Prior knowledge:
By secondary structure, the chain is an alpha+beta fold. The protein contains 9 helices and 15 strands. It folds into 2 domains: 2-48 and 118-200, 2-Layer Sandwich (D-Amino Acid Oxidase, Chain A, domain 2), CATH 3.30.9; 92-116 and 202-286, FAD/NAD(P)-binding domain, CATH 3.50.50.
Amino acid sequence: SLRGLKAIGLKPSGRLVINRFRGALFLSPSGHELVVEGSRELACVVDRHELDQALAQQAESSGAEIWLGRKVLRAQQGPSGVVAGGAWGSVRAEVLVVAEGFRSRLVKQLGLTTIDWRYVLPASQVELEAPGRLHEDFVELHFTPELAPGLFAWVIPLDGRRARVGLACRKADPRRRLRAFVKRRFGIRIKKAPYSGSVLTCGPIPKTHVGRALVVGDAAGQAKPTTGGGVVLGCLCAMEAGRVAAEALASGEVAEGGLKAYERAWRELLGREFKAMRLLRRALDVLPPRALDLAFKLASDMGLGQELPRVVDMDFQSSFLLSLPRLLISGLLNLGRRGH
Length: 340
C-alpha cells in the first residue's frame, strides 16, 4: 500500500512506482464481482529492482557496508560471536541478522523451527499485453479454487496495455494453471515462459531469535497469510531487528540476552495482525465455492465495496475483523434503504 511504503521510509514516487490503484475487483468462483473502490489512490505496484536499490541506499546512508557476491551458506554461534560463511570464506560478527528468504537453511542450522512448509505455495507469474481488457487503476483478485486452490489468481495492471498476471496454488503445477487462467480471462495464450516462485501463507515461525542471531522477513514467516505479501511487514520487523541489535551492541548486552527485545517488539507491533490474517486465510481455505459465491454476492448487494476502504488497512488487516460487525450493520441498512 502507499501508506505501507511511507511507513518503511520510502516515497511512493518516481521510478519506484509503476502504477497506482484506487481499488480492487474481487471475483468469486462463479463470477460474482465485488468492487472495492476508494475515494483516492490506496495502493501501487513497484519496480522491484528500484525497491531493492532504494532500500540498499537507505542502509548505506545509515552506515551499512554491502558486500555482493558472498552467499552465506553456514552460520555458527559461539560464546564471543557468530561466524557466517560460504565458498568465499567467512566473517565473524557480534550479531547475525538472518534475512535469507523462505528456504531457511541458516534458520535450521541455528536450531530454530522453520516455516510451516504445508503453507508455502508454488506460484507463477507472467507479464503480458492485453490492451482494452484491463481496468488500469484496479487490481483483480480471482478466487477460483479449481485453478488456484489455497490462494487466488491476480491481474495487476502496469498501465492500460500491460499487466502482471499470476496465481499460486496448492498441490498443482502453477504454470499449467496460469496458462488456463490467462486463456479464460484474456482469451490469449502465454507466449513466454512464466516466472516461478513461492508464496508464504504460513505466518511467523514460533521463535525468531536465538543467542546472537535474529531472523527477519520470509525466513521468519513475516508475510501476510492472506495474500503472501511481505515487503511492508517484513521491513517493519527488520527495522525493529536493526534497532534492537544497535541498542544491544551500544549497551554491551548482546551476550546477556539483549536481543530478546526483538521478539517482544515485533510481536507487540504485528502479532495481532498475523493472527488475524492467519485466521482469515484458514477460513478462506475451508470455504466451499458456493459459500464464497454467496459471501461475495451479499457483500456486493450490501454495498460493502464502498465501506471497506474507509475502515480496513491493506497491511494491518485485523481492522477487517474488528470492523466486521459495523460493516454488516451498515450493509443491512443499505439493503433496507434499497428495499424501500
